[in-house]
Amino acid sequence: MSDVWELAAIATKFALYLGVLIAADTIIAALLFRPKRYRGLCLSFAILGLLAAGLSFSLRGANLAGDPSGMTDPEMLGHLWITPVGTVLIYLVAGLAAANKLRFIPALQANDPIAARHLTKSIFIE
Question: What percent of the chain clears pLDDT 90, i.e. is strictly above it?
Fold first, then answer.
């Protein structure tokens, strides 16, 4: 593949690492220091990680096909899904969904009824 696709793969990998690390570290910082506003930061970086994981998966499909049509080709992505790349995507999505739930723990420890209501709604949606 061309240099553009290699740069896109590097950029999505960087965004993935940034999203996962900051989402997880925000939760750890919230448990240790109890800041007032952290949930939005954690959610936004978890969403960044999810989008980067999906785009990285699609870019691997394009790399496997040899052209950009592999990014959306269901057959190519289906073949990619049963490889370790698909397993990694499942683990990333599950981990970031758990980070979305864990961001409510510090507020629940402080008996915040709004956080309890948001957590219930979030579990219901997923």
Answer: 28
- CB–CB of 77/87 below 8 Å? no
Number of Cβ atoms within 10 Å of the Cβ of 26: 23
pTM above 0.85, yes or no: no
* Residue 42 contacts residue 27 (beta carbons within 8 Å): yes
Tell me, letter by letter, the H, E, C secondary structure of the chain: CCHHHHHHHHHHHHHHHHHHHHHHHHHHHHHHHCCCCCHHHHHHHHHHHHHHHHHHHHHHHHHHHCCHHHHCCHHHHHHHHCCHHHHHHHHHHHHHHHHHHHCCHHHHHCCCHHHHHHHHHHHHHC
- CA dist 90 and 72 (Å) reads 18
